[in-house]
Amino acid sequence: MSSPSGDEGMDQTHEHKMSFEGAEGRPAPPTSLPLQGQVGVASQRKKLSAPRISLSLDQSEDDLFDTPDDLDINVDDLDTPDEADYTDHEIDWEEPQASQSESVKETVEPIPTYSAQEERQDSKLWRTVIIGEQEHRINMKSIEPYQKVISHGGYYGNGANAIIVFAACFLPDSDREDYHEIMENLFLYVISTLELMVAEDYMIVYLNGATPHRRTPGFNWLKRCYQMIDRRLRKNLKSFIIVHPSWFIRTILAITKPFISSKFSSKIKYVNSLAELKELIPMEYVHIPECIIRQDEELREAAENSKISSFLQGSENPQESIAQPNASSS
């Protein structure tokens, strides 16, 4: 008869627990039911899972961990914060990045692809040379109209001595905006070409005729050329012939004498005509520009006229001198 009293006590406890939890505002689901067995066997209780559990933010961590394993929760039904619930600071943080990425996408251009012919053409625009153990790059496109300034004039002597022709009439005008850039690349081109043309002894023929003052190279350019020439080239240079020298080029060479050796100064020779040049070197492979040929003809005609006029003046003077004594004797 003690078991009914025990059940009543348990019911009272269960009711007290429900009333206590109900006071908090949420009913507590039943967690056990009385199980009656055979007579004389002590009553046992069996734990059963609740059919529904309402989750809320007010539950404690202990209640969350008591959730059964077979609980089926639909994640899609859960309320999640949307984009509008974020703070303004987070929205401002994302928008600049998006705008920057969009601007980058707009400004990025595809890299142009070169064909084999374009690559060969581009390689022709630049030439890499080594002068004085230093690597230099020459912009061949910028000096394309002026590459005739230096040429090979064949050989003299025993056939191994080269003749290098430098035509100053092919130099650029000094009033060009890119004059210094062109002269820099042209300087590297002349020095590198000279090293390729010369194997042993050689001479330089400097054609100064038909060159206006604006195309005459300056003192600094000539001085730098001399300083950058390799020692082997200086030693192997046998003669430096200047054809049709002007007073300006004579003055420049006079100024450069303190900066050059006496041996180099002794190699400089002045030639006033192409006929005199022909007496010094073979002219078969020496290319003379047409403007220099015309000037040489003009200078030759002027020289002949000057001789005729001086001859006529000299022939007239003796007649006057003869007539004066006759007059005095009479």
Can you walk me through this structure?
Helix content is 47%, strand content 15%. The chain has a five-stranded mixed β-sheet. The chain has a two-stranded antiparallel sheet with strand order 1-2. The protein has helices spanning 2-23, 61-65, 88-107, 116-125, 179-197, 219-228, 231-236, 247-256, 262-266, 274-280, 290-329, and strands at 32-35, 44-47, 126-131, 134-139, 150-156, 161-167, 202-207, 237-243, 268-271. It has eleven helices and nine strands. A hairpin with a 2-residue loop joins strand 3 and strand 4. It is an alpha/beta fold and 330 residues long. Residues 1-9, 16-24, 37-42, 59-65 and 86-94 have low confidence and may be disordered.
Compact description:
The chain is of the alpha/beta class and 330 residues long. The protein is built from 11 helices and 9 strands. Residues 59-84 have a biased composition (Acidic residues).
Please report the distance between the alpha carbons of the first and last residues: 199 Å
Helix run count: 11
- Strand order, sheet with most strands: 5-6-7-8-9
Rg from alpha-carbon coordinates? 54 Å
Structural class: alpha/beta
Helix content: 40-55%
How is the main sheet built? 5 strands, mixed
H/E element order: HEEHHHEEEEHEHHEHHEHH
Number of strands: 9
Query: How much strand?
Result: 15-25%
Average of the residue pLDDT scores:
74
Uncertain runs:
1-9, 16-24, 37-42, 59-65, 86-94
Specify the overall morphology: elongated
